Amino acid sequence: MSQHDLGALSPTAGLIAIHAKVLVVFGLTMVLVALFTLMERRVSAFMQDRLGPNRVGPQGILQPVADGIKNFIKEETSPAQASRTYFLLAPMIAITPALVTFAVIPFASPLPTRWGLVDMIVADLPIGILFILALSSLGVYGLVMAGWSSNSKYSFLGALRGGAQMISYEVALGMSLIPVFMLAGNVTLTHVVWLQQEELGLWLAFPLGLAFFLFVVSSFAETNRLPFDVPEAEAELVTGYHTEYSSMKFSMFFIAEYAHMFTAAALMATLFLGGWDVPFTDFDDMRVIAPGIVEGAQPALWKTLVTAAAFLAKTLFFVFGFMWVRWTVPRFRYDQVMHLGWKVMLPTALAFILLTGATILVLDALGVEYGLAYGLALTAVNAVAMALFFFWLDNDRVITGSPRGGRHADAPEAEVVEPPQPALAPAGSDG
């Protein structure tokens, strides 16, 4: 594999590059979050055969701007019995992890400049995935704090539901990533992308498809999206943990939700679909092994733009998946959410870890070279595991829903007893 020495950035140029990447990533994330609100309305309108927003700007493109202005000028309310400090702090705690976690996700191939090589990641931490898991788990504090500080029973019930759900599925989400660590031998996201480009030559969605499915389902629960929106069940809890919020504080919870959704979609694309890798090509197979030194293909500006577009396309695909599921799948009951998390997702994740580890040991003992054949062998084992999971393990108890599921699905139907009919009075009587 060839290496290219393009020169490292000077300390001053490196500092400027870091600030520029922070501004671009933060600004682009906030713009996309605003556009996702419009995209959500358009997707729901398409699925329900409606027009959707079409009044503000051409084809309703300025609707997010109108929504933002409305939230800024709307009246602020503060419950008299609320704990004011924590009531104000909760939206900030909810939104911060969603914006910070994107810092360790690579979004394009390295960019060569006249000042040196610029890596297209804000912070290439050696603990990348662990950093994401640690920060994303902090989002539950903002949710619970919002419900508790509002001093409202509806808000508090929503916060308890949300806290239980997010903690439950955080375990399954972390377990679903362990097979990725086992194959990569590293938790740096740039190395995971390189693994799929060159070392394995296969996107991890194929050899680790069951882990991919568990990660997707857990991400739905972590972002409180349907069918896991019991913390915000409007029909039961008004609006859940943010019932007492209004104006921009209310909007910050939804900004946090869409930002979490964007980060989760970017993680799915990076961990299981090759990140910024363009499929069926090798012109973009490269990685930075030292400051200014690239292994693999020669970096170029057009390659950076193409790979950034590929990464964005994969991320938007998963964002559309989030919206598609929201408008087509009904909400789970709370007992179904807990059953799926603890009795289905967690044991399945543990079993798949054991299966992946045993398969790796067998392949290593057989002397199979680490590469495409290695990945295809894992893919075959994964196909069997997915067939067992979908067609035997669950057996329509949870995923299908309540009509055929539940604890009493096989119980005999109860006998219907007709209530006694009142006796008819004789004709002509006063009774």
What does this structure look like?
The protein has one domain (8-393). The protein has 431 residues and is mostly helical. A hairpin with a 2-residue loop joins β2 (111-113) and β3 (116-118). α1 packs parallel to α11 (301-326) and α6 (153-184) runs antiparallel to α8 (209-222). It contains 13 helices and five strands. It has helices at 11-47, 63-73, 84-100, 128-136, 139-149, 153-184, 189-199, 209-222, 234-237, 247-272, 301-326, 334-365, 372-393; strands at 3-5, 111-113, 116-118, 286-290, 293-296. The strands form two sheets. Strands 1-5-4 form a three-stranded antiparallel β-sheet. A two-stranded antiparallel sheet has the order 2-3. The protein is globular and about 80 Å long.
Cα(first) to Cα(last) distance is 102 Å
- Global shape: globular
Specify the helix fraction band.
55-70%
**Helical element count?**
13
**Total beta strands:** 5
Name the descriptors.
mainly alpha, two-stranded antiparallel sheet
